[in-house]
Design goal:
Number of domains: 2
Number of helices: 19
Distance between the termini: 37 Å
Radius of gyration: 23 Å
Length: 451
């Protein structure tokens, strides 16, 4: 049976390779089984565990064309392929002539279009805008259709009708999200690494707490987190693996107080928040999340962009937090790629550690299938979140959801074929991965329901 036979489903058509050699048939042909599971996956409304989508009014107020899709992800592959960063800024400038931008873009697109980041854009172009490829003959038509669709009703059409997303957890820095589509996750990383003394002033203004001591600062943190919870926050989020190691060590209060006092006495260029104080405040956030009963989402694995210290993002550095705060549920992002095996071990060993596959399906569909296969065998199935779009634009969220559905259906079909569980079990697992696990973990219930 060819790969085309296996994936000939008539809609998405993402030609992704099998995670291993095709298992021996045990009475049910792989292609029909896969098709049945994929059909059900496409009919299931998802809970999307992570997005960076602005509210619709902000999106439709922008001048957009096809190159709006290079706000992140695929743009990184262009730079990796050789596109100068200064040319990327030109490509992103919607006020520049489209033809000028295409000339800068086209040579590098030919090298980057094989990546999964690019594949997602090709899916969006085809399924949403009826453009079968992105090339010199189609880019103007695609840009015209993207611009034409950029009006009120875009999110209802893309997120609800096309992507069938029940609700997305939005990481956009505010609880003021459009409740038709989103529920908020909020970051408190500025309590761990304040950007400057002005950050302290802003925290004082936000919380009404005058910060003169470490105790005051912790009080301000608790007030900020409680206020966010009362305003609809369903998760705490941290993205500090972009800036420092995830090794958050245990620090005594006396040591943290000394660091705090030294920082508060410094000024100007000397302002610095030392690692022991950062670690201490991260522990306070983890503790407070458990007390408030909200999961703690933490970036692990690959950092978006070009050039970073990947070893900072190894999830094993978080182990002290897992031990010290058993009431806190840690939702670890991106499958921790490339530290997927480490994440599986952590989720297997710690009752309060969960795997979140947000972003992962477009990092590598093959790795996503391979690791989901392994995680099914090693981690209780209620601890795996199967999808989070992690996009800045809705078309990307749609395309990612299609890839995720296909990966999950393929992996489950392969497990049924090898006799690991029945098709009935596969259907139940699929609903857990796509919706039910996230609904339970985040207490979302019927928020944003479209069913």
């Amino acid at each position: 049976m060819t790969r085309r036979d296996l994936f000939l489903t008539g809609a998405v058509g993402v030609a992704t390779a099998a995670p291993r050699s095709q298992p021996r048939s045990k009475g049910t042909k792989p292609a029909p089984l896969f098709r049945r599971l994929l059909r059900e996956a496409r009919q299931t409304f998802l809970i999307d565990t992570h997005e960076h989508l602005c509210n619709e009014d902000a999106r439709v107020s922008q001048k957009v064309d096809f190159f709006h899709w290079f706000s992140h992800y695929a743009s990184c592959d262009l730079v990796s392929a050789g596109l100068p960063p200064k040319d990327l800024e030109v490509i992103r400038d919607a006020n520049r002539p489209l033809e000028e931008r295409w000339k800068l873009f086209a040579p590098h697109w030919q090298n980057a279009r094989t990546t999964a980041y690019a594949k997602a854009l090709l899916i969006a172009a085809r399924d949403l805008y009826g453009v079968d490829d992105i090339n010199e003959r189609t880019y103007q038509t695609l840009s015209e259709r993207v611009a034409e669709a950029n009006k009120p009703g875009l999110y209802e059409w893309v997120l609800k009708k096309q992507a069938r997303i029940q609700v997305s957890i939005a990481d956009v820095g505010t609880t003021g999200v459009d409740k038709r589509f989103f529920v908020p996750a909020i970051r408190f990383d500025h309590f761990i690494i304040p950007g400057s003394r002005n950050t302290i002033f802003e925290i004082e203004k936000e919380t009404g707490v005058s910060v003169h001591s470490l105790d005051d600062f912790v009080e301000a943190l608790h007030k900020a987190m409680s206020k966010a919870k009362d305003s609809g926050m369903v998760a705490v989020k941290s993205g500090l693996a972009y800036a420092r190691t995830l090794n958050y060590e245990r620090v005594s209060k006396s040591d943290a107080e000394r660091s705090f006092e030294e920082a508060m006495r410094s000024s100007g260029r000397e302002w610095r928040w030392e690692k022991p104080l950062q670690d201490f405040m991260m522990h306070r956030i983890a503790q407070a999340a458990g007390e408030l009963g909200v999961p703690f989402q933490i970036h692990t694995g690959l950092q978006e962009g070009n050039g970073n210290i990947i070893t900072n993002s190894n999830p094993t550095g978080l182990v002290p937090l897992f031990f010290d705060y058993p009431r806190t549920r840690f939702d670890l992002f991106h499958g921790a790629y490339p530290y997927c095996g480490e994440l599986g071990t952590l989720a297997k060993n710690f009752p309060n550690v969960y795997i979140d596959m947000c972003w992962m399906h477009i990092i590598s569909p093959a790795a996503s299938r391979r690791m989901l296969d392994e995680w099914i065998e090693t981690v209780p199935i209620n601890k795996i979140m199967g999808f989070g779009g992690d996009y800045l634009f809705v078309e990307g969220a749609y395309a990612h959801s299609m890839i995720a559905r296909e990966n999950i259906a393929y992996t489950l079909a392969a497990k049924v074929e090898e006799g690991y569980f029945t098709e009935e079990h596969a259907r139940a697992i699929m609903k857990k991965l796509l919706r039910d696990n996230a609904a339970e973990l985040f207490g979302i219930g019927s928020a944003g329901s479209a069913e």
